[in-house]
């Protein structure tokens, strides 16, 4: 055909087809999204420190392993309370003259999603220790260590933020101090939270929810009142282990042990349920505990399973709690006025 | 600490499979028992059948020998005699002598000691216990051996008895043969003997003249050939000389490309090791997040792009039957792209990047150099095509020139800041990363294949129109599929659906392209065995089919649930970027370099390159795909995230092992390239002797 024997016409046609399709699937949807998008009313802009921290997050390539997107599928429930929306990313604009926008949605989840890491792990101490060497707090972790965000000082100044790490991880007689960079990066991580939807509009549903398998042997009637169908050890690994450790011994100077803890083995489970549901920051020597139960929307069955796991592991030997007991306490907590 | 790490590594290696499949262990044991019982039963049944046949034969012979001793059908033994037997018989018939003995081959059979055990595995209610099952399987092994020994014992006894019977029969036959006579029979036997003794004289075809190779068809004469440790492959055809200026340009493209291949995969290899040993180092410049884009960008923009452009500089003028428009523009491109990759690598390691989108990590001033390089290439190629001396534009140039145009468009769309706020960045990112792969690397490489494959097979491409169909459908469908990297994310649902539909549409160009290439092989498959480029082409084409269709399968919503965010994507990108692009580029380089330099690589190192790369790729991808699938299932079952990290450890180790093999193959490739460029340093005695002869002649 003559048309295809003319290089101007041939390559012109290919070019126009490609440009047309590009406009259709990339440029126009992108512009449309840009023009019809705004941050949610409740969204908190990043602080100065968090903006610097985000730059560090970008320059160290954290996005290679960490996503920041909660998909509208059931398996992503663990990463946030609702699926992500376009509005969640609306405040991302061009970084500076040299660098493009960084929405940091990511495509690999070698490490956990960080969309709501600010609510899931609000402890500064934990984040700093974890950045210095992740294997101090999570021994199976393969995340790189970031020692260059810290300094070893013989005599830390008064305003220095001291990081307590086990002796094996630092030089003798020196004290580890977080640099401004480390603090900025943690400030950014702390700022990562899902914004509540305004008004009464409910969030979109999570798709592909697992069908409850009633036929399975987890017949509720056969269980005694202290047993549940939930796996306490698995729940502990997901929600508690990062700080309190698999051994239940916690980390000296950062997270309290649960092994032999009076709170855990106390006959009356009110306090421990309270701590799980509302968090805890009463003791100076330890980091703050987030409201794990409320953040992850744990059910009374799940809370009972976690408590019973803690009460019967690492040498702890306290009577198990029943789901009803926990349910009553949770109910009471919910009725309490928000402080 | 280090010792501990080593221990972990080795125990991971051992425990790889046990860790992977504990849930199915029970089922496997059950199957093993059923299988071993079945095998024993089957062997016993076969043995009984054989013994029964033997017994029937023995009984039959016995009955016959009992019933009619005299009137037996002895003449049947006169049929099918051998020449030797006939001559013996004829001698006897002449001499009327006495028959001594008739030879019969006797089987001397070993007398096995009986080890038969009578115990049988009993399947009881304990079958659900692992230890019991293993024990049963172990016990069934000697039982089986006993059954086999018993079977041999019975067979031997029966055979001995049968042979006694046959010997008696042989005696009777000999007596009969001894008694026969007759002239006619003797004449018939003699004729038969002459016929059997017929033989050719061995020079029916060649005649009696001495051998002489008038047309110089015989080459590679070796009087003392050593054992062929490596299959001898066909040498490259001597082609018309390529413009030395162009040769130099192409050679430098390939050299720098190979440098980036070795550099980029060294980084990749180190990254793979970091999955197994995360504390291998703690320098900021070498941390995982910074090195990962160094690896991807170096192999994309450094290795693959430069290698493609180098081959393109040869193909585009060749199929236009003209010379390259400007060698100088080629050099500018080479310098610009190399500068871009050097600067990009350094800035990434220093922590300066564009914002985290994959393959878009170079900041714009760096990528601008690359873009200008592409623009100069486009001018160069386009002007070359415009000055072609053929009427039509060969299909290779459709693909190659279009891919350069698209490459420029993609870069502009990706780096212009007008549509990058909020989710716009993500939409553009999905488009960019996939168009980079599909419209730049894939399209350009297909153009290269459309030239080199028919050339290497010495026959035209199977179908021109299939190539054209693939071209337009590739543009139509591939452009749409970018956002399938963000399925279920906050980008518009309709856009995700369009991407999935486009991914399915990709079946058309992929099947069209594969069919076209494979049918070009039709009738020339035998050439693969004596070519060192065709195995690379074939591997690349097969991965083009499987890798691309795997991409389609991955795009569905259901498979996204399972595989998205896991290392399955990494395995897929290596199956495609490595299995397709790298193999096809190597094929092109091995086809081209001997033509422009006159030097060929040693075949043993080409073989090492091929097999290490292929086996390495399979070691890399298959465990990673299996592990990722299991990891996806763990996530869907809401297992603790950290458990899914520990679970992947053995598969990451496999990835590092496969990666090491791939990396090693690149060293072989670099060496082959060196051998294709540099003449061997040793003095060629023959060549030098004739050189000396010529110099003697020149002196009057």
Automatic annotation (TrEMBL), chain A:
It comes from Dyadobacter psychrophilus. Keywords: Heme, Iron, Metal-binding. PANTHER family: ALCOHOL DEHYDROGENASE CYTOCHROME C SUBUNIT (PTHR35008:SF8), BLL4482 PROTEIN-RELATED (PTHR35008). GO terms for molecular function: electron transfer activity; heme binding; metal ion binding. Residues 48-193, 227-314 form the Cytochrome c domain. This is Cytochrome c oxidase cbb3-type subunit 2. PROSITE patterns: CYTC (PS51007). The lineage of its organism: Bacteria, Pseudomonadati, Bacteroidota, Cytophagia, Cytophagales. Pfam families: Cytochrome_CBB3, FixO. Signal peptide: none annotated. InterPro entries: Cyt_c-like_dom, Cyt_c-like_dom_sf, Cyt_c_oxidase_monohaem-su/FixO, Cytochrome_c-type_DH.
UniProtKB/TrEMBL annotation, chain B:
The keyword Flavoprotein does not apply. One of its GO terms (biological process) is aerobic respiration. InterPro entries: Cyt_c_oxase-like_su1_dom, Cyt_c_oxase-like_su1_sf, Cyt_C_Oxase_1. Residues 227-700 form the Cytochrome oxidase subunit I profile domain. Keywords: Electron transport, Membrane, Respiratory chain, Transmembrane, Transmembrane helix, Transport. GO terms for cellular component: membrane. The chain crosses the membrane at residues 35-55, 99-118, 130-152, 249-273, 298-317, 329-350, 362-382, 394-417, 437-454, 461-481, 493-519, 531-551, 571-592, 604-626, 652-674. This is Cytochrome c oxidase cbb3-type subunit 1. It comes from Dyadobacter psychrophilus.
């Amino acid at each position: 055909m003559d048309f295809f024997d003319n290089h101007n016409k041939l390559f012109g046609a290919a070019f126009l087809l490609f440009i047309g399709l590009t406009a259709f699937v990339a440029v126009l949807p992108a512009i449309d999204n840009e023009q019809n998008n705004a941050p949610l009313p409740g969204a908190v802009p990043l602080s100065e420190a968090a903006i610097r921290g985000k730059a560090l997050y970008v320059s160290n390539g954290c996005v290679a392993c960490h996503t920041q997107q909660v998909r509208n599928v059931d398996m992503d429930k663990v990463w946030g309370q609702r699926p992500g929306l376009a509005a969640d990313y609306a405040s991302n604009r061009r970084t500076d003259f040299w660098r493009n926008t960084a929405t940091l949605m990511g495509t690999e989840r070698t490490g956990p999603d960080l969309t709501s890491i600010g609510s899931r792990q609000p402890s500064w101490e934990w984040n700093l220790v974890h950045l210095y060497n992740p294997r101090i707090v999570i021994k199976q972790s393969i995340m790189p260590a970031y020692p260059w965000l810290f300094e070893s000082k013989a005599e830390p100044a008064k305003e220095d933020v001291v990081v307590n790490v086990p002796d094996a991880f630092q030089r003798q007689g020196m004290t580890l101090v977080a640099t401004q960079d480390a603090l900025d990066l943690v400030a950014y991580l702390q700022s990562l939270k899902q914004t509540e939807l305004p008004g009464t509009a409910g969030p979109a549903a999570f798709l592909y929810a697992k069908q409850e398998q009633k036929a399975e042997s987890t017949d509720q009637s056969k269980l005694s009142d202290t047993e549940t169908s939930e796996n306490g050890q698995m729940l502990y690994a997901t929600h508690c282990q990062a700080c309190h450790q698999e051994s239940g011994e916690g980390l000296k100077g950062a997270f309290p042990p649960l092994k032999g803890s009076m709170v855990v083995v106390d006959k009356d489970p009110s306090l421990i349920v309270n701590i799980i549901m509302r968090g805890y920051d009463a003791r100076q020597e330890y980091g703050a505990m987030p409201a794990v139960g409320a953040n992850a929307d744990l059910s009374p069955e799940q809370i009972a399973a976690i408590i019973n796991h803690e009460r019967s592991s690492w040498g702890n030997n306290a009577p198990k709690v029943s789901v009803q007991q926990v349910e009553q306490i949770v109910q009471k907590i919910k009725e309490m006025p928000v402080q | 600490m280090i010792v501990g790490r080593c221990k972990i590594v080795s125990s991971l290696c051992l425990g790889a499979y046990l860790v992977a499949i504990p849930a199915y262990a029970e089922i496997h044991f059950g199957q093993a028992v059923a299988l071993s019982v079945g095998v024993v039963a089957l062997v016993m049944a076969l043995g009984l059948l054989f013994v029964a046949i033997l017994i029937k034969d023995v009984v039959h012979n016995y009955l016959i020998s009992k019933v009619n001793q005299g009137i037996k059908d002895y003449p049947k033994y006169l049929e099918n005699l051998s020449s030797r037997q006939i001559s013996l018989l004829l001698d006897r018939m002449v001499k009327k002598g006495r028959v001594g003995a008739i030879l019969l081959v006797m089987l001397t059979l070993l007398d096995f000691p009986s080890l038969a055990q009578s115990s049988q595995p009993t399947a009881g209610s304990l079958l659900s216990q692992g230890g019991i099952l293993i024990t049963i399987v172990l016990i069934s092994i000697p039982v089986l051996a006993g059954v086999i020994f018993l079977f041999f014992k019975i067979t031997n006894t029966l055979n001995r008895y049968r042979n006694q019977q046959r010997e008696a029969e042989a005696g009777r036959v000999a007596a009969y043969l001894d008694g026969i006579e007759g002239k006619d029979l003797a004449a018939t036997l003699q004729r038969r003997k002459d016929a059997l003794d017929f033989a050719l004289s061995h020079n029916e075809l060649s005649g009696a003249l001495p051998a002489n190779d008038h047309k110089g068809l015989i080459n590679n004469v070796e009087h003392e050939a050593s054992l062929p440790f490596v299959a001898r492959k066909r040498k490259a055809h001597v082609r018309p000389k390529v413009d030395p200026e162009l040769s130099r340009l192409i050679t430098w493209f390939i050299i720098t490309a190979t440098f980036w291949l070795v550099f980029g995969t060294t980084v990749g290899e180190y990254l793979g090791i970091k999955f197994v040993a995360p504390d291998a180092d703690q320098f900021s410049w070498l941390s995982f997040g910074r090195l990962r884009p160094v690896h991807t960008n170096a192999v994309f923009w450094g290795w693959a792009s430069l290698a493609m452009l180098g081959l393109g500089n040869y193909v585009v003028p060749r199929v236009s039957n003209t010379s390259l428009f400007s060698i100088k523009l080629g050099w500018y491109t080479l310098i610009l792209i190399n500068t871009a990759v050097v600067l990009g690598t350094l800035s990434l390691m220093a922590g300066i990047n564009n914002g985290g989108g994959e393959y878009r990590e170079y900041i714009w001033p760096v990528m601008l150099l690359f873009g200008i390089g592409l623009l100069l290439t486009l001018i160069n190629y386009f002007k070359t095509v415009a000055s072609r001396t053929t009427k039509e534009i060969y299909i290779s140039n459709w693909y190659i020139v279009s891919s350069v145009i698209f490459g420029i468009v993609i870069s502009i769309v990706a780096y212009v800041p007008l549509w990058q706020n909020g989710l716009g960045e993500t939409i553009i990112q999905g488009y960019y990363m996939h168009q980079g792969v599909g419209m730049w690397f894939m399209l350009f490489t297909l153009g290269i294949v459309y030239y080199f494959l028919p050339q290497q097979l010495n026959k035209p491409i199977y179908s021109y129109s299939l190539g054209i169909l693939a071209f337009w459908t590739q543009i139509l469908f591939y452009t749409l599929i970018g956002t399938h990297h963000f399925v279920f994310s906050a980008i518009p649902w309709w856009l995700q659906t369009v991407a999935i539909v486009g991914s399915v549409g990709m079946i058309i160009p992929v099947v069209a392209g594969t069919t076209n290439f494979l049918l070009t092989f039709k009738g020339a498959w035998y050439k693969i065995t004596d070519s060192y480029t065709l195995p690379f082409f074939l591997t690349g084409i097969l991965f083009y089919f499987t890798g691309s269709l795997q991409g389609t399968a991955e795009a569905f919503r259901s498979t996204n649930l399972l595989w998205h965010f896991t290392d399955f994507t990494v395995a897929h990108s290596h199956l495609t970027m490595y299995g397709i692009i790298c193999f096809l580029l190597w094929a092109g380089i091995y086809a081209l370099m001997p033509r422009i330099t006159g030097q060929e690589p040693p075949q043993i190192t080409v073989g090492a390159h091929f097999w290490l790369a292929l086996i390495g790729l399979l070691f890399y991808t298959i465990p990673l795909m299996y592990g990722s699938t299991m990891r996806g299932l763990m996530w869907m079952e809401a297992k603790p995230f950290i458990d899914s990290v520990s679970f992947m450890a053995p598969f990451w180790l496999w990835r590092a092992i496969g990666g090491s093999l791939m990396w090693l193959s690149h060293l072989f490739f670099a060496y082959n390239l060196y051998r294709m460029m540099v003449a061997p340093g040793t003095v060629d005695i023959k060549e030098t002797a004739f050189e000396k002869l010529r110099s003697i002649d020149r002196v009057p």
